[in-house]
Amino acid sequence: MTIDWSWIGDHTDDLTTLTISHLQAALTAVLLGVLISLPLAVIAHRIRPLRGFLLGLSNVLFTIPSIAIFVLLLPVSGLTRTTTVIGLTVYTLVVLLRNTVEGLDSVPVKVKEAAKAMGTRPLRTLLTVEFPLALPVIMAGVRIATVMSISLVSVATYIGDGGLGQLFTDGFQRNFPTPVIAGVVLTLLLAVVADAALVALQYVLTPWRRRRA
Amino acid sequence: MIQFDAVHKRFPNGTTAVHDLSLEMPEGGVTVLVGSSGCGKTTTLRMVNRMVEPTSGTIRVGGKDVTRQDAAELRRSIRYVIQQAGLFPHRTVLDNIATVPLLLGFSRRKARARAAELLETVGLAADAGKRYPHQLSGGQQQRVGVARALAADPPVLLMDEPFGAVDPVVRTQLQDELLRLQKELSKTIVFVTHDVDEAVRLGDQIAIFRTGGHLVQCAPPAELLARPADDFVADFLGAERGLKLLSLRTLADVPQGPAPEAGNWSLVLDAANKPLYWASKDAKDTKAAELPVRPLKDTDSLLSALNESIASPTGLIARVDAEGALTGVTSRDDIHAHAGQAHTEARVAA
């Protein structure tokens, strides 16, 4: 199996476009996943009876095969980017919801008590005390969801999307390994870079966790 | 002033935490609530700022019924200090202290400037302000807790075993600090502890609770120690309650005389007249030729004088002025006489 470097040289523009499209799909899904799971996690955290239901639901959604999700969505959103993003978002929920709930659980009772005792109202406590302190656990979930989404985008090739995944079908159909290898390498690279960026973001957002004694 | 009027607290599980409590906590004074665990002292404290709601009865702060006020606003004027401080781990020390001023709508700059002043008030270095709580020792964190409670000048402080988690040396320091601050600030303080010595040191009045949330006795420390209401209170105060009473009295009015020249021991002074040690004139006594002396000031307690007089080889204690120069000596007998008199006075005053 050899790499045809000239094919890569001829297709740099295509590769760039596919990489950007791939990243866009993954990041949009993670962003939507975060926006959906934050309020749901607060509900699951505050209202104990709903906790099992919400976490169970996210687990059940995760067990639906990815191709099946896209097929099920076809009548709703057709062969579009929207279908890809919805599908990916559903998968991110399983980690994002669970980690956000666990992050909120990890906030020390004493600290919440102190906030209340100083006259901080519940919403402000949530935004200025609970979320910041839950951030490390939430970010761990975001990192997993991001890497997972980046690897899953390729599945959407079945509905004509799929970012770098299109290189795999192209390579297989023509029995030509170079696009496949390029696709794998670029996907891996995207995952590594995105993960590193999230680590850096967390470092910036949690100054109190640096220089741990 | 904080008034409890026939306050009752039953928890949903059926336990009675506070039973028919009527109690007045005077303005500008320290009221200490003591008792063994489960006696309702913490519940009592937490009802003042509505962290716990009473089942029946009324609680007034400054004449106003607390249950008729907005809980969050009430809590901004009544500050609560808890064990291990409950600091926000994600905020710098300065921002921790600035929490309530910010809630009250101060600008960030003004809140931080005030926080920096408070840092000094509680005896912390200015550079501690930029650190995070986990970078401080337990004692320093507790000081930050007090500073945070003092921000925006609340009239009432609630302190729930605030010094329970620090070692005895630091605990004494923090108690001294609190007494010093209280002299300046005259806050109305409600202080919960299970440590009798701490209660005696800090309290203007002490309320003793018994399991089941019954208030047994509420009195100034001297009265409580001299005349416990019943066996429960006497047992709680401990066998040394007579000595504890002496910790409340100072040496100021105990007479002193010149250091004697005769006898086997003499007090050796340095050039500035500061006592150094007791020296034996007996040549055979080489093993104990020099014994340490711990000079006492007028502000020291009768209890430490009694202790020193027992340790001193001559039964005399060395008295010094604020600079540490010798002013005279006092005999064991004089100290005993005053100790007895202190007890008599406390009984009569009660």
From TrEMBL, chain A:
Q: Which GO terms describe its cellular component?
A: plasma membrane
The similarity comment for this entry is: Belongs to the binding-protein-dependent transport system permease family.
Which cell locations does it reside in? Cell membrane; Membrane
Membrane-spanning segments: 20-41, 53-73, 79-97, 133-160, 180-205
Q: Which Gene3D superfamilies match?
A: MetI-like
Q: What is this protein called?
A: ABC transporter permease
Q: How does it sit in the membrane?
A: Multi-pass membrane protein
The record, for InterPro entries, names:
ABC_transp_perm/SBD, MetI-like, MetI-like_sf
Tell me which Pfam families the record gives: BPD_transp_1 (PF00528)
- DNA-binding: is it a keyword of this entry? no
Q: Which domain of life is it from?
A: Bacteria
Please, one GO biological process term? glycine betaine transport
Organism per entry? Streptomyces regalis
| Residue intervals of the ABC transmembrane type-1 domain | 19-197
Q: Which UniProt keywords apply?
A: Membrane, Transmembrane, Transmembrane helix, Transport
From TrEMBL, chain B:
Tree of life domain: Bacteria
Entry's Gene Ontology molecular function annotations: ABC-type quaternary ammonium compound transporting activity; ATP binding; ATP hydrolysis activity
Q: Which UniProt keywords apply?
A: ATP-binding, Nucleotide-binding, Transport
ABC transporter domain span: 2-237
Entry keyword annotation includes ATP-binding: yes
UniProt keyword annotation of Nucleotide-binding present: yes
Look up and give the organism this protein is from.
Streptomyces regalis
Protein's name according to its UniProt entry: ABC-type quaternary amine transporter
- SUPFAM superfamilies per the UniProt record, alphabetical: P-loop containing nucleoside triphosphate hydrolases (SSF52540)
Q: What class of enzyme is it?
A: translocase
Per its UniProt record, what Pfam families does this chain match? ABC_tran
E.C. code: 7.6.2.9
Q: Which family does it belong to?
A: Belongs to the ABC transporter superfamily.
